[in-house]
Specification:
Blueprint: H1 11-23, H2 33-56, H3 68-78, H4 90-93, H5 95-106, E1 118-122, E2 134-138, H6 139-152, H7 156-171
Helix pairs in contact: 2-7, 3-6
Pfam families: PBDC1
Organism: Alosa alosa
GO cellular component, one term: cytoplasm
């Protein structure tokens, strides 16, 4: 994932203002383009940290939340038919999919912090976050899918690719 200055480019005062703005309830805002940029930056930074994590640590051993087991159990019960390796955006965003996801997501209100906040999710788990390989999803959808991918070995390709790259660099 390409690095950028992200929030650091805002400076201390700008980052502080962004943090304060992001802590206010959604009702406090209209469609403020600056706020949308801050949310996008926050989602991008979250994605970058997560991708670096699964590149550096065997994903099978990662714990993303204190509720991983509950999320995984509910997810596998509700979405056992979902292709985790290559997600179809329609299975997340179509009107039918939204109706199916809504009760799943809402059961984590009060259990998973910021369960309905937006975040970035990779469609193809073997690839990095790119414009073509990324979809906007709720945080609980991200957690559910990524916990299942980690436990099912789907993110191993990312981890193994990084290990091979490091091995080649050490041999050079």
């Amino acid at each position: 994932m390409a690095s950028s200055n992200g929030l650091a480019s805002l400076g201390v005062e700008g980052a502080s203002a962004a943090a304060h703005a992001l802590s206010l309830p959604a009702e406090a805002y209209g469609n403020d383009p600056q706020l949308e940029v801050m949310w996008a930056m926050k989602a991008y930074n979250h994605a970058e940290v997560y991708f670096n994590l699964i590149s550096s640590v065997d994903p099978k051993f990662l714990k993303l939340t204190k509720s991983d087991d509950k999320i995984y159990s509910a997810f596998t019960e509700s979405f056992s038919d979902l292709n985790l390796e290559l997600l179809d955006p329609d299975h997340l965003k179509s009107p039918e999919a939204k109706e199916r996801w809504r009760p799943f997501c809402n059961q984590f209100d009060g259990i998973v912090e910021d369960f309905n906040y937006g975040t970035l999710l990779r469609l193809d788990c073997r690839k990095d976050y790119t414009e073509e390989n990324t979809i906007f999803a709720t945080r609980i959808q991200f957690y559910a899918i990524e916990i299942a991918r980690n436990r099912g070995g789907f993110n191993d390709a990312v981890f193994n690719a990084k290990c091979k790259q490091q091995s080649k660099e050490e041999q050079s």
